[in-house]
């Protein structure tokens, strides 16, 4: 059994068809079928049940599929690690960022990192947290700069300092209070514009204060939330740093008095997966200032 055979078998298992697996591997079907047969003979077990059009993994095949993934990933990791070592800390770091992480990312962190590692270039992918998680799982990016809350079960995380959520209020609302903060209860019966990811958190917090929030608009971007509030359509509930980055000339803001309505920026990467020395150095530089 060699790495080539494991690659062939894993492709068959993932495609569920020898024909499509052969096409993906750029080889003819008969040699691929022969390699599968040789692998079964060597291991002394049947790995797949062959149907008229599809193949189905046996229990032994399922075990080998999981192990094959691990072995091939380890093999690829060794190659990349040796390559990184030979090149030193040079190359391109692919990271993903949410729109509201700009200030956190650029407030000295990138500039300082660039000064220390001048041979590194960046490739940036932007999207919401769910998009970044998908890019991480696909291996398109090594590190994601995401905002809590998110499901961190399959990820390693390094967090920045927690920041408050704020209410961004159109100036024409003539808010009575001159305080710099606002209680959760003062949001009752107000048209709220929210980033969809915070819906459950905001709803739960308002219900704990005895009222159901009036959600006027839900969207998928903090910048859109601010834009709608800036047009006078309602009160935006966003992280403080997102407000500071946006065009908000028609708005004032007040921090919401709630320990629950806080959020953090985090650097996240996939657990138990190879991560390059470049990415490791970047992660080391990330965190609470």
Automatic annotation (TrEMBL):
Transmembrane segments annotated in the record for this chain: none
Alphabetized CDD domains for the sequence: PBP2_LTTR_substrate
InterPro entries, A to Z: HTH-type_LysR_regulators, LysR_HTH_N, LysR_subst-bd, WH-like_DNA-bd_sf, WH_DNA-bd_sf
A Pfam family hit: HTH_1
UniProt keywords, alphabetically: DNA-binding, Transcription, Transcription regulation
Domain of life: Bacteria
GO cellular component annotations of the record: cytosol
HTH lysR-type domain span: 1-58
An annotated Gene Ontology molecular function: DNA binding
Signal peptide: none
Similarity comment: Belongs to the LysR transcriptional regulatory family.
Name this protein carries in UniProt: LysR family transcriptional regulator
């Amino acid at each position: 059994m060699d790495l080539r055979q494991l690659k062939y078998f894993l492709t068959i298992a993932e495609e569920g068809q020898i024909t499509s697996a052969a096409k993906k591997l750029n080889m003819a079907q008969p040699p691929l079928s022969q390699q599968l047969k040789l692998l079964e003979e060597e291991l002394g077990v049947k790995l797949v049940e062959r149907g008229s059009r599809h193949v189905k993994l046996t229990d032994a095949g399922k075990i080998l599929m999981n192990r094959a993934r691990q072995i091939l990933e380890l093999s690829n990791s060794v190659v990349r690690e040796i390559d990184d070592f030979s090149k030193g800390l040079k190359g391109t770091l692919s990271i993903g960022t949410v729109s509201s992480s700009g200030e956190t990312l650029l407030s000295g962190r990138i500039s300082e990192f660039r000064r220390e590692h001048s041979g590194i270039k960046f490739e940036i992918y932007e999207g919401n947290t769910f998009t970044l998680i998908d890019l991480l799982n696909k291996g398109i990016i090594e590190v994601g700069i995401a905002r809590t809350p998110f499901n961190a079960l399959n990820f390693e995380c390094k967090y920045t300092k927690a920041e408050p959520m704020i209410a961004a209020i159109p100036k024409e609302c003539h808010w009575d209070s001159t305080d710099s903060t606002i209680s959760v209860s003062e949001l009752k019966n107000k048209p709220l514009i929210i980033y969809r990811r915070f819906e459950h958190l905001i709803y739960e917090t308002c219900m704990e204060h005895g009222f159901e929030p009036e959600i006027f608009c839900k969207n998928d971007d903090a910048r859109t939330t601010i834009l709608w509030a800036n047009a006078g359509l309602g009160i935006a509930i966003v992280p403080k740093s997102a407000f500071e980055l946006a065009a908000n000339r028609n708005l004032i803001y007040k921090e919401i008095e709630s320990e629950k309505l806080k959020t953090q920026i985090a650097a996240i990467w996939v657990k138990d997966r190879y991560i390059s020395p470049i990415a490791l150095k970047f992660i080391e530089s990330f965190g609470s200032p």
